[in-house]
Amino acid sequence: MKLMLAAAFSLGLTACASNGVSQYHNETPPLKLEQYLSGQLDAWGIFQGRSGEVKKRFHVLIDAKWQDGQGVLDEHFTWSDGSTSRRVWTLTRQADGTYRGRADDVIGEAVGEVAGNALRWRYVLALPVDGTVYHVNFDDWMFLMDDKVMMNRAYMSKWGIGLGEVSLTFVKR
């Protein structure tokens, strides 16, 4: 039992020590968030459970605007089961170059860091599942591929246990 606890603790320390977004500092094209997230974008994605099985597919139409250092992303989701939802993000660039974000279903504040072509976005989402709302940690990684396409992979967890992944591709109109 002690050996299992030590191994789990060691794995936890390894995960904490992993490289952050700064490892992508020299990657191109450079992501200028205010520039890419401006105008209309389409995104297509999937949610995969722990086993890798695709649980849901979705399309998002995003209308993004920036004014005086503050961005608004109005996201309209259409899910594979025919349901729809909406999330409106308010993003603010900080003096240190990081971003802070708020949305109605985000608990507290999202924190984003940009380096090179990458954005790491971390937040807690109030996620409704079968009539119950769970607070789920999201560790979002976005990579600008060119001036039109950005890839996104989000890792979902609760109490350090992986719940699944969201993958999506953004295309700027």
What does this structure look like?
By secondary structure, the protein is mainly beta. It has one domain: Beta Barrel (Lipocalin). Helices cover 11% and strands 61% of the residues. The protein has 2 helices and 10 strands, in the order H-H-E-E-E-E-E-E-E-E-E-E. The chain has a 10-stranded antiparallel β-barrel with strand order 1-2-3-4-5-6-7-8-9-10. The longest helix has 15 residues. The radius of gyration is 17 Å and the shape is globular. The N terminus is likely disordered.
Q: Which sequence of SSEs, written as H and E, runs from N to C?
A: HHEEEEEEEEEE
Overall body shape: globular
Number of domains: 1
SS-derived structural category: mainly beta
- Largest beta sheet: what is the strand line-up? 1-2-3-4-5-6-7-8-9-10
CATH class: Mainly Beta
Identify the CATH architecture: Beta Barrel
Low-pLDDT residue spans: 1-17
Largest sheet features:
10 strands, antiparallel, barrel
CATH homologous superfamily assignment: Calycin beta-barrel core domain
Classify the helix fraction into a percent range.
10-25%
Number of helices: 2
Give the total of beta strands.
Answer: 10
What characteristics describe this protein?
Lipocalin, disordered N terminus, ten-stranded antiparallel barrel, 173 residues, 10 strands, mainly beta
Short description:
With 173 residues, the protein is mostly beta strands. The chain has one domain: Lipocalin (Beta Barrel). The protein contains two helices and ten strands, in the order ααββββββββββ.
